[in-house]
Amino acid sequence: MAYLFDKIAGFFAALFAFLPFVSSRNSDTSSDSTGPARTIAKFQRLSDVNREDTASRAHHHFEGSIIHAPELPIDAPVYAIGDVHGRADLLNALIDVIVDDCKASGERPHLVFLGDYIDRGFQSRDVISTLIELGRDDTFETVFLKGNHEQAMLRFLHDHKIGPDWANFGGRETLISYGISPPKSVNAVDEWQEIQQELVKTIPPQHVEFLEKLAVSHKIGPYGFVHAGVKPGVPYEQQTDEDRMWIRDEFLNAKDKEDLFIVHGHTPVNAPYSDHRRVNVDTGAYFTGRLTAVKIEGDKMSFLTNQFQAQEAS
Question: CATH code for 2-22+68-148+204-305?
Fold first, then answer.
């Protein structure tokens, strides 16, 4: 019964939500900024997004896949978790899988969350609370990256005028998770000022602090972790926040390897995807019911979901 409810909730979330903005990026954005960014963007529906990586099945990996990868310089396993999008139920299930999976390791595992914790699903508040508690757990070394949806929510906390855009972007479900009803007419900009003020009063201070402290990138040896991707041909350390959180086709369709192997989410795929330059672990959790993590250990990558963990072939 719970499974059926999740499917129904995910279906309606998919109907009401749109895929992220395609940004026309501001090259002056600081790489360590935490305030609202000046993003000029437009919305695109799922069917409008050109994603070559979904066209080819050759490099898609299902549960159980174990593949060779650049070698980590640390002994501890690294787990990078894809877009959660308001599905606390899937997040808790995946964490249980990871806890079980890393029992054999004598090292403290690293968890890198790739952003987009909120919007579209109806449990965004619970997701953030779970991540805050996880960050306090000494079991893991945790890193939380900022996605474009967290950036949008931070902007709304400072500017009510983006309310209609944020609502169509998945913000309605986030507001509902905080017990706030969006305006009946989401396009009525004036009505969003009261909603913004209500959210500012309602959201726990630790949630705002969590959002404001999110990093935009992380690096471990030959791996670069970002939400969306990187601008092709630009050194990793010189990437802008806008590209790290928003880029899509230019990065996805590039051919040449970057200076680091990129681990990202942002663009939903049917199954985890990898090639010679990147791995994508966003499997559309909010509408598929499948949240995915890539495990990197030594020179191997494998994939775990909220329902399954990879096993070494005997």
Answer: 3.60.21.10
